[in-house]
Each structure stands twice: as C-alpha cells, then as structure tokens.
C-alpha cells in the first residue's frame, strides 16, 4: 500500500471504490516501504529455511519423531 500510493494517487479496488493515499508525493515513503518489504520478505525466507533445517536436525541427529508428526503421522503410531 505504501509503495503503491507514494505518488499520491489512490488505489482502485476492482473498480468498486478507491483507497486514498495517506501522503501526497512521498518518494521517501516508497523507498522506505520498499526496503522494509525487501528485508521482511528475506526474514520470512530465512526463518522458513531454519525451521526446515531444525526439523531435519530433530529427525537425523536427535532421532525423535518430531518430523514424522509434522508430516501428519499419528503420535499413537510411535507409542507416545
């Protein structure tokens, strides 16, 4: 939203109504929002990869049933 409205123009929602811009001609707003979007997106990617690696760590190093339970196996299958 902040990137799309940085030029001061509203956003049309399917032609039904317009969402007004919060600030007019805010180029710095677009730059800040773009940088924030970039770093938050990469944070989600890094956290997702870490989450996957930790599931593999539980499976191969800790030798517990965490990964199997994450994949939808019943915990009763493992005597828990």
TrEMBL record:
Pfam family name, one: Ni_hydr_CYTB
MF GO annotations: electron transfer activity; heme binding; metal ion binding
A single BP term in Gene Ontology: respiratory electron transport chain
Cofactors, names only: heme b
Keywords: Cell membrane, Electron transport, Heme, Iron, Membrane, Metal-binding, Transmembrane, Transmembrane helix, Transport
Topology term for the membrane: Multi-pass membrane protein
The keyword Cell cycle is annotated on this UniProt entry: no
Domain Cytochrome b561 bacterial/Ni-hydrogenase, first and last residues per copy: 16-72
Subcellular location: Cell membrane
Domain of life: Bacteria
Positions of transmembrane segments: 36-56
GO cellular component terms given for this protein: plasma membrane
Family assignment from sequence similarity: Belongs to the cytochrome b561 family.
PANTHER family to which the protein is assigned, alphabetical: CYTOCHROME B561, CYTOCHROME B561 HOMOLOG 2
Name of this chain's protein: Cytochrome b561 bacterial/Ni-hydrogenase domain-containing protein
Source species: Escherichia coli DORA_A_5_14_21
């Amino acid at each position: 939203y902040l990137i799309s409205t940085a030029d001061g123009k509203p956003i049309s929602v399917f032609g039904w109504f317009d969402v007004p811009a919060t600030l007019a001609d805010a180029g710095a707003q677009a730059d800040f929002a773009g940088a924030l979007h970039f770093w938050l997106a990469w944070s989600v990617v890094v956290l997702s990869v870490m989450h996957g690696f930790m599931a593999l760590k539980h499976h191969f190093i800790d030798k517990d049933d965490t990964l199997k339970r994450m994949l939808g196996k019943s915990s009763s299958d493992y005597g828990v």
